[in-house]
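Students often ask why inverse folding is considered easier than folding. One informal answer: many sequences map to the same fold, so there is more than one right answer. In these notes we will look at a single instance of the problem. The structure comes first.
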């Protein structure tokens, strides 16, 4: 059984949401300190572990803590978890309950030998065991029909061999059924061979998504051109300016770097004293949208060097905690959308710096919207539709003009973390913690293609300009290219040594920028 989430956070079942949040934060801080101080006992690792191994264990532990917080801070999820925990404890108690073998035999029918054997449970002599066995057999024989008694009666009692030791007796019992066992073993062996043959035929005739060859060759950036190393913590977000002169990157250590796209030199550094979780450039102006962990949404006027603070109107309707997970300008430059931990999606009239609408679901479903945190958002190329991805395992489509929910796309078995519209506007790609990529046909509003290839969370997605190739970034440290029409694997980029969190693609599709938990930004280009 998995350890209790309450035990993981060191809290009781009566703890309120505010205390749960504080407990989760305390455990995260303790884990970080333990990794720095090499506290092997706290992390439950060997003293021979390297610093890299300690950090990896700490990351996994923090991930579990965050998952525990999400469940326990959600009233419905917490109630469901408590019920499952109680049911599991009942099953364990039932399994561990000692069996009472003698209970089936009526006390009045027990012989003296049986009673004496019962009084001496620790007696190990073969004589006492024989007496106990014979008493039970006599008891049972009284209730058996005469015909069965005759069949079971030994032919020659006088020549009966003395009862062998217990271990030999067990072997003797098995030998009586050896013929049946041999037949069963042969049947199982034949069945396994048949299954292996079927699997071999099936796998050779229907290869998995990584082995499917694309219908035609595609030109994609696969050559590592440069590595930018300045961040000192996870690179979480990347954006390329509309004129493709600059690249903005944000990290966990409160810093935003503005890089010269051509030379890789840092031209500006912004310190926001907050985790930077989202950056995006305006499609025509020198504006940079910035979203932070503590619910702040800014628009930085790069040319005038002015920072506009958009009042954080997101509210904690799902949890009491709010955090901007994503922020994105619409292609027409009129809108700015933001996604929040509290389960809400907000559209901003960026020219007037005021909210246009706010969509947030309610537990009673009286108002449409996500029932858990919103991780990612994406505008359609015509700026008419907004897609949002949530921890409720759904993708939702919104009408930008009035905030009306158009469709709920269900297909993922776990959190949906990444979204991308195809440039032609006909497709939407989604990826999540179930390691699967779904490509949705927006005309029929159904899954056109499902791609199984990554071994961990799909963290970011982007289409190539021709809408024929999809790029995916994953926490398996890899970047992969996929052919949309077949789901075929085209190429894999290896180079990052930690989670690949973010992708950005140049307009011509010849340069790809990736950001990772290894604190690095890598530039990939088409081979000349």
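Output (designed amino acids):
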């Amino acid at each position: 059984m998995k350890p209790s989430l309450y035990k993981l956070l060191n809290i009781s079942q009566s703890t309120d949401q505010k205390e749960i949040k504080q407990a989760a934060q305390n455990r995260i801080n303790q884990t970080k300190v333990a990794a720095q101080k090499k506290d092997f006992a706290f992390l439950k690792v060997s003293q021979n572990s390297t610093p890299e191994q300690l950090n990896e264990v700490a990351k996994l532990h923090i991930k579990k803590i965050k998952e525990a917080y999400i469940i326990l801070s959600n009233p419905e999820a917490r109630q469901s978890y408590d019920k499952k925990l109680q049911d599991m404890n009942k099953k364990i108690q039932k399994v561990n309950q000692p069996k009472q073998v003698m209970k089936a035999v009526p006390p009045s029918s027990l012989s003296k030998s049986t009673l004496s054997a019962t009084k001496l449970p620790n007696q190990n002599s073969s004589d006492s065991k024989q007496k106990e066995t014979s008493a039970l057999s006599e008891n049972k024989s009284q209730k058996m029909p005469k015909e069965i008694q005759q069949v079971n009666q030994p032919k020659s009692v006088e020549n009966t061999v003395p009862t062998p030791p217990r271990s030999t007796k067990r072997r003797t019992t098995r030998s009586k059924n050896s013929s049946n066992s041999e037949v069963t073993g042969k049947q199982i062996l034949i069945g396994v061979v048949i299954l292996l043959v079927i699997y071999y035929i099936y796998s050779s005739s229907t290869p998995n998504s990584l082995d499917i060859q694309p219908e035609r060759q595609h030109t994609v950036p696969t050559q590592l051109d440069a590595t930018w190393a300045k961040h000192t913590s996870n690179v979480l977000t990347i954006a390329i300016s509309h004129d493709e002169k600059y690249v903005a990157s944000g990290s966990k250590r409160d810093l935003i770097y503005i890089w010269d796209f051509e030379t890789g030199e840092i031209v500006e550094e912004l310190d926001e004293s907050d985790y930077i979780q989202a950056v995006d450039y305006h499609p025509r102006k020198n504006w940079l949208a910035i979203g932070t962990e503590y619910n702040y949404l800014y628009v930085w006027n790069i040319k005038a060097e002015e920072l506009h603070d958009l009042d954080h109107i997101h509210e904690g309707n799902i949890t009491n905690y709010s955090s901007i997970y994503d922020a994105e300008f619409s292609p027409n430059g009129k809108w700015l959308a933001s996604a929040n931990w509290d389960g809400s999606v907000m559209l901003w009239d960026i020219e007037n710096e005021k909210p246009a609408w706010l969509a947030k679901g309610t537990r009673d479903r009286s108002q449409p919207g996500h029932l858990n945190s919103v991780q990612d958002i994406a505008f359609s190329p015509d700026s008419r539709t907004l897609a949002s991805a949530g921890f409720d395992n759904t993708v939702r489509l919104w009408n930008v003009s009035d905030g009306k929910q158009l469709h709920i796309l269900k297909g993922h078995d776990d959190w949906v973390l990444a979204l991308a519209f195809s440039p032609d506007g006909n497709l939407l790609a989604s990826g999540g913690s179930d390691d699967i990529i779904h490509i949705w046909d927006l005309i029929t509003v159904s899954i056109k293609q499902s791609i199984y290839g990554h071994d961990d969370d799909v963290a970011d997605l982007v289409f190539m300009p021709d809408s024929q190739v999809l790029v995916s970034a994953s926490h398996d440290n890899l970047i992969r290219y996929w052919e949309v029409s077949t789901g075929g694997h085209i190429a894999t980029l290896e180079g990052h040594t930690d989670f690949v969190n973010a992708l950005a693609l140049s307009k011509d599709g010849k340069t790809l920028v990736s950001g990772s938990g290894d604190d690095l930004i890598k530039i990939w280009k088409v081979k000349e």
